[in-house]
# Entry
Amino acid sequence: MIKDGKIFGKINIIDLLVIIVLIAAIAGIGYRLLGARSAEVRDMQNFEYVVRVDNIRQQTAQALEKKGKVYADKNNVETGEIVSVTVQPYKQEAITTKGEQKFAETPEKFTAYVTIRVNGTCSQGTYYDNDKTEIGAGRGHKICSRDVATTGEIVSVKPIE
# Structure
């Protein structure tokens, strides 16, 4: 079988090892290039997410209630549209003299729940807006529209039909 360093008298063992290493390297490179692309395939998905914006003034709440298009703060790409705004009095945590936790309304401060509709992408259960920003509950999020720029926390994300 192995005679004079050759397998079956025809192929040198070193040459065979070099061929195997080259095939493995080509397969690895091909997998990285083609495998990475297939993992990035994203489906277009309409979805809505709700951002809670706490401790805002009445002017900010009124500007949010004008609704309109939302843009990415870094490059002005349109990312969605405000479809509804619910404004409530802002309640701040306070500890009483007895050590009890209470929530008291803060005068002239509000909490807004802003619903934003996006035609973005979904990849492996993760949502992205048109600017490729990940949208997920618990994440901080900046809202920039023609009338207002403010920051809040995403409280929910849901697909829409």
User: Anything to note?
Assistant: The longest strand covers residues 101-123. The chain has a mean pLDDT of 89. The helical segments are 13-39, 58-65.
